Amino acid sequence: MNLYRADPLDEIAAVAARMVVEDGLDFSAAKRRAAKQMGLGPRSALPDNGLMEAAVRDYIAVFCADTQPVELQALRELALLWMDRLSRFRPHLAGAVWHGWATRHSDIHLHLYCDDAKEAEWALLDHRVDYQPGAVTGRDREVVQVLTVRARCDALSQWVLIHLMVHDLDALRGALLPDAEGRKPKGDVAAVQAIISA
User: Fold this and answer.
1) Could you tell me if 24 and 43 are in contact, meaning their C-beta atoms sit under 8 angstroms apart?
2) Rounded to an integer, what distance in angstroms lies between the CA atom of residue 27 and that of residue 186?
3) What is the spatial distance between Cα 171 and Cα 120, in angstroms, rounded to a whole number?
4) Which of 91, 64, 77, 100 is nearest to 151 (CA)?
5) Which domain holds residue 74?
6) CA-CA 20 to 30 A from 152: which of 85, 86, 107, 185?
7) Enclosing H/E stretch for 187
8) Given this model, what pLDDT does residue 6 score?
9) Is the domain of 79 the same as that of 59?
10) What is the pLDDT of residue 2?
11) Quick one: 31 and 104 in the same domain?
């Protein structure tokens, strides 16, 4: 008789990882959907984002090792193109594309830093770029304006969503503070150019 039982959090993370990679869900949505699919209640404990990222990387290593590096490179190059276009707003790349586990189903997340939050919106209007306004809750519980644009990625022959998180200029001071794992949570243009070259 096998007495070994997998940790329920590991099981949830494994199921959720497939949804992140194959369906493009964010961690939060994937964890909730995985728990529901596994018949767990809404109050069940869910894996933290560190465990989720590890599970996503494991899934990619097993099922997407041949395709993911090419897709990641294409998304990073598209991100860099938009960072160049928005250079006056001191753009920083974050999320899956920055950390290296993005696939063709991943969105691009750019953080912009402005004297006036409306400046980025005016810049998109000036260049006749269609966008969808929204908002998210930031790391410090502040409301962050989000402008979502749809951009063509020719290398992947598909459209990609780019989320522009607009912050006050003062927020730039803490933008590169390391996360719990000691990593930089975002990268500026030079950092993105470096990882693309590498």
Assistant:
1) no
2) 18
3) 15
4) 77
5) 68-197
6) 185
7) strand 186-187
8) 63
9) no
10) 46
11) no
CATH number at residue 86: 3.30.460.10
Write down the pLDDT at residue 115.
Answer: 87
Query: Which amino acid is residue 171, in one-letter code?
Result: A
Residue 1, pLDDT score? 38
Is the same domain home to 168 and 112? yes
In this structure, the answer to whether residues 177 and 193 fall within a common structural domain is yes
Give the whole-angstrom CA distance, residue 46 versus residue 29: 11
* 113 contacts 89 by C-beta, under 8 angstroms: yes
Contact assessment for residue 101 and residue 56, using Cβ atoms and an 8 Å cutoff: yes
Residue 184 confidence (pLDDT): 85
| Interatomic CA distance for residues 131 and 57, integer angstroms | 31
Asked, for residue 2, whether it belongs to a domain, the answer is no
Distance CA 172, CA 91 (A): 10
Helix (H/G/I), strand (E/B), else coil: 148:
strand
Q: Is residue 3 part of a domain?
A: no
The CB density around residue 25, as the number of other CB atoms within 10 Å, is 18
**Residue 105: exposed, middle, or buried by beta-carbon count in 10 A (0-12, 13-18, 19+)?**
middle
pLDDT along the chain (198 residues), means of 10: 63 95 92 92 88 95 96 98 96 95 96 91 93 85 91 97 94 76 87 93
Are 167 and 101 part of one and the same domain? yes
Query: Could you tell me the CA-to-CA distances from 41 to 36, 45, 180, 194 in Å, in that order?
Result: 7, 9, 29, 44
One domain, residues 90 and 59: no
Tell me 7's DSSP state. -
